[in-house]
Amino acid sequence: MSQFFQIHPENPQARLVKQAAQVIREGGVIAYPTDCGYSLGCHIGDKAALEKIRTIRRLDDKHNFTLVCRDLSEISTYARFDNSLYRLLKHHTPGPYTFIFNATSEVPRRLMHPKRKTIGIRVPDNKIVQALLEELGEPIMSASLILPGETDPMMDPYDIRDTLQHQLDLVIDGGFCGMQPTTVIAMITEAVEVLRVGAGDPTPFE
């Protein structure tokens, strides 16, 4: 049976944020709000928790997982990019984008695309996530909470609890947090490519 925390979207309660971070550190899988729907998250180094997310989502080994990061300095630990891309990122983070980069050696191999050695990176504009990342001091390994056979992320934390309460360790209720998925931008080569148009404006990357 999963725990259920109601965390204020504008003023996250420090006590609950600290408890949520501890659940992640101890190998738990959580459902948490971002600026583009709810996501599943776990500790970056926890193989068993990652496999639990694969099972919930029915993902194969070709799925590009996402590291949810606090800021640009944290991104640079896990992703390779040059100064021109840095400037683009600086203007569009935090925000409703997922960026695909060539991964550095700091990224566990099981999180990368197996052939391309790439990793997705997110900096959500959501105060609960930012508080959680600050408390953790490292990224959250993440995947959108889209159930098998569905195309949109789950939006209602009570539905999430009812549906997945025996598979998750914690559901964070952060209220409504948007319906559109992120805009996905590939920054693997010098030619920046928009792979999916979602909540973020793709124009600066075209």
UniProtKB/TrEMBL annotation:
Keyword Disulfide bond: no
Pfam families hit by this protein: Sua5_yciO_yrdC
Annotated keywords: Nucleotidyltransferase, Transferase
Enzyme Commission designation: 2.7.7.87
Domain YrdC-like residue range list: 14-200
Top EC class, one word: transferase
GO molecular function: double-stranded RNA binding; L-threonylcarbamoyladenylate synthase
Protein's name according to its UniProt entry: Threonylcarbamoyl-AMP synthase
Upper lineage: Bacteria, Pseudomonadati, Pseudomonadota, Gammaproteobacteria, Oceanospirillales
